[in-house]
Design a protein that fits this description.
The complex is a heterodimer of chains A (115) and B (110). By secondary structure, chain A is mostly beta strands. Chain A has no helices and eleven strands. In chain A, a hairpin with a 6-residue loop joins strand 4 and strand 5. Chain B has 110 residues and is mainly β. Classes of the chains: A mainly beta (115), B mainly beta (110). Chains A and B meet through strand 9 and strand 10 of A and strand 4, strand 5, strand 9 and strand 10 of B.
């Protein structure tokens, strides 16, 4: 596998379920990101990790819980979601936060539907 | 208004040039980016320009930056059906993680 991979690609869950999204990058990068993409809205940055430490949390509801066990893996744990949380969730990575160029590599996303 | 503004749709004929425009609010941004998203895929970095440059050309792509007006454009020469996608403008760099616009859907018809 190369680049940034995400699993699952599609997920349908009820509002009382607990599920997790997984992201893996094979690029040797030190920074990883979660974004939410909703139709006709700007891409929303949710979380940023640098060297496994969370450096940004953009007022995201607590029903979204990120985890970064190492610099190659990023998870987004989901529980008691709302229908308005249905969206495409994109993971991205970049070399690091110090270089300043932020050339980001994105995964294909997980299409989440909350019923 | 939003930090990054783009029109939502652009329709062009195959072989014509496409120009996608973007305006942004933060004059301290170091880099300005264009990303492309094809159906069912994540965003792919197409090109970026440093804020001290006016223009950057890369094969069929030309990026123009008017820093005074905070206006960025992406020109695609000889547009092909394979160029149909959503194009995102973003700014950032330095201590600023990129801020993205809503994206412009480019539709190329024969």
């Amino acid at each position: 596998e190369t680049g940034v991979t995400q699993t699952p690609r599609h997920l349908v869950m009820g509002m009382t379920n607990k599920k997790s999204l997984k992201c893996e990058q094979h690029l040797g990068h030190n920074a990883m990101y979660w974004y939410k993409q909703s139709a006709k809205k700007p891409l929303e940055l949710m979380f940023v990790y640098s060297l496994e430490e969370r450096v940004e949390n953009n007022s995201v509801p607590s029903r979204f819980s990120p985890e970064c066990p190492n610099s190659s893996h990023l998870f987004l744990h989901l529980h008691t979601l709302q229908p308005e949380d249905s969206a495409l969730y994109l993971c991205a990575s970049s070399q690091d936060l110090a270089s300043g160029s932020y050339e980001q590599y994105f995964g294909p996303g997980t299409r989440l539907t909350v019923t | 208004g939003e930090d990054v503004e783009q029109s939502l749709f652009l329709s062009v004929r195959e072989g014509d040039s496409s120009v996608i425009n973007c305006t942004y609010t933060d004059s301290s941004s170091t880099y300005l980016y264009w990303y492309k998203q094809e159906p069912g895929a994540g965003l792919q970095l197409l090109t970026y320009i440093f804020s001290n440059m006016d223009m950057k050309q890369d094969q069929r792509l030309t990026v123009l930056l008017n820093k005074k007006d905070k206006h960025l454009s992406l020109r695609i020469a000889d547009t092909q059906t394979g160029d149909s996608a959503i194009y995102f403008c973003a700014y950032g760099g330095g201590s600023y993680i990129p801020t993205f616009g809503r994206g412009t859907s480019l539709i190329v018809h024969p």
